[in-house]
Write a structure and sequence with these properties.
By secondary structure, the protein is α+β, with helices and mostly antiparallel strands. Helices cover about 35% and strands about 25% of the residues. It is built from 17 helices and 19 strands. Strands 7, 8, 9, 11, 15, 16, 18 and 19 form an 8-stranded mixed β-sheet that branches. Strands 1-2-3-4-5-13-12 form a 7-stranded mixed β-sheet, sandwiched between helices. A hairpin with a 2-residue loop joins strand 12 and strand 13. Helix 5 crosses helix 11 and helix 10 packs antiparallel against helix 11. It is globular. The protein starts with 11 loop residues before the first strand and ends with a strand. The relative contact order is 0.17.
């Protein structure tokens, strides 16, 4: 039935939280669009994001639907929260479907610490983390990887970090894809990307990146929570950051090439930000190899940050990481393209799944889920904002058919950073959060204003949609205790 949805009046309601963008919404669409939203969230959907869903549906080789998760908002070419799969041979690869912060992602560390044990040390912990993990725009690390080490990082990802003393073997086993994407091509990384990447290993960066101390507030799925090692009242630690300047430069460099390639191969682009090339062309494969390298850099970056953070916990509590139980639950990527096998129209097919501000959410039994979680499904980590809960979910089998095994990645913005800085005072936000028992440290007060809880959708509403649709199921709610902002 046709549903009047305000600015999105041409959407067709398929189910309680599923909306279709009909194929005749815009001339040239090869498939319909699918948007997963509650009635409440639909009111926040920008027209431009809807147009971007339709534009992505025009790209060659797209399979089933151009999709947007409940946290969708306007991005570069693809909406943030966008998911699209393209045929391995007849489809395309597009940097716009990955984004500039390649493999921006989240990792969650559990602990044996109770909330009451931690609160007296909260200030000391935040100060230590703030000093140990450089944050802010262009922040630099004490680590200086050599050119050859950087090339090793681009290929090996988290494994490089662990082999060089930044973690333990179990960390690798608890990362999506063991903390790397195969097929990285370091020779497709420019000198400028090298230069930007060398001094930034183990740094947080700026924007919405953060370190957050949390407490498990509620358990929804006892079996999955037990498998993930999560207990009510215990403290967790979340890291959110990506590939820093190296990844940004990789995207910038290859967009130029792929813009020319789209013309060369006669691809009619509805938006030049959707620059792409046939998946098997040299231009597309060069980008894919460079993207994989940047993704591997991001996993290394988060691994080093976790190692530095473990050291702060050990110093503050006077116990080693084993006594503190500082084990990695999981690490998920938000901005990547991957070659995966999916069942489409009854047949297994290899497709390049672009997840741009979206999380892989594979179910129990899938061969790519870490062995420790194969009986319950992959942990799906959904951060909130500074003042709202984060969630741990678990991949469902239904998600493989609904969204190529993909879920949302966060709450999703409803206000631009520039608008937020004009609307809020960072100091006022900090004081207000402190009154609620949430401490915040930031490189600059303006960062707090940019990331005020009010500029995001409700993380609970977003997660509830994913749960109701059946893409992934809720396992645990984590509430913030203290935050370090980039």
């Amino acid at each position: 039935m046709e549903q009047d949805a305000g600015s999105a009046g041409k959407l067709r309601k398929i189910d309680e939280d599923i909306w279709e963008v009909p194929q005749d919404y815009k001339e040239g669409m090869r498939v319909p669009g699918r948007i997963f939203l509650s009635e409440t969230l639909l009111g926040n959907l920008e027209n431009e994001a809807l147009e971007q869903v339709a534009n992505v549906a025009m790209l060659p080789g797209i399979q089933k639907y151009s999709m947007a998760m409940p946290d969708a908002h306007v991005g570069y070419g693809f909406p943030i929260g966008g998911v699209a799969a393209f045929d391995e041979d007849e489809g395309v690869i597009s940097p716009g479907g990955v984004g500039f912060d390649i493999n921006c992602g989240v990792r969650l560390i559990r602990s044996n610490l109770q909330r009451e044990d931690t609160l007296p040390h909260l200030n000391q912990l935040l100060d230590g983390l703030f000093d140990a993990v450089p944050s802010g725009l262009g922040s630099k690390s004490k680590i200086r990887a050599s050119e050859s080490e950087l090339d090793e990082i681009f290929v090996a990802g988290s494994q490089w970090a662990v082999e060089h003393g930044y973690g333990v073997k179990a960390d690798i086993e608890h990362c999506e894809g063991n903390g790397r994407i195969e097929g990285a091509l370091p020779d497709q990384i420019s000198k400028k990307a090298h230069k930007r990447g060398r001094p930034q290993l183990g740094t947080l960066g700026s924007g919405n990146h953060f370190l957050e101390l949390q407490c498990v507030d509620e358990i929804y799925d006892e079996e999955a929570a037990k498998a993930f090692g999560l207990e009510k009242g215990k403290v967790t630690f979340m890291v959110h950051c990506g590939s820093r300047g190296a990844g940004h430069q990789v995207c910038t460099d290859h967009i130029k090439t792929l813009t020319s390639a789209a013309k060369k191969y006669g691809i009619d682009l509805p938006d030049r930000q959707l620059a792409c090339a046939p998946a098997q062309s040299k231009e597309a494969q060069d980008y894919f190899g460079a993207m994989a390298a940047a993704a591997n850099y991001a996993w290394t970056n988060r691994q080093v940050i976790m190692h530095q953070s473990r050291g702060i916990f050990e110093k503050v509590f006077g116990m080693d990481q084993d006594e503190l139980g500082l084990d990695l639950v999981y690490d998920v990527a938000h901005n990547v393209a991957k070659l995966e096998e999916h069942e489409i129209d009854g047949e297994k097919k290899k497709v390049y799944v672009h997840r741009k501000g979206a999380t892989r959410a594979f179910p129990a039994g899938h061969k790519e889920v870490a062995k420790a979680y194969r009986n319950v499904g992959q942990p799906v980590l959904i951060p909130g904002s500074m003042g709202t809960p984060s969630y741990v979910l678990c991949g469902n089998e239904a998600g493989m058919h609904i969204s190529f095994g993909s879920a949302c990645h966060g709450a999703g913005r409803v206000m631009s950073r520039s608008h937020a800085k004009k609307s809020f005072s960072g100091e006022d936000i900090r004081v207000r959060l402190e009154d609620r028992g949430i401490l915040v440290k930031a490189a600059h007060p303006s960062v707090i204003a940019e990331e005020a809880p009010e500029v995001y959708k409700s993380s609970s509403e977003v997660v509830d949609v994913v749960h109701r649709v059946g893409i992934a199921r809720k396992v645990a709610k984590l509430v913030p205790l203290g935050v370090v902002k980039g």
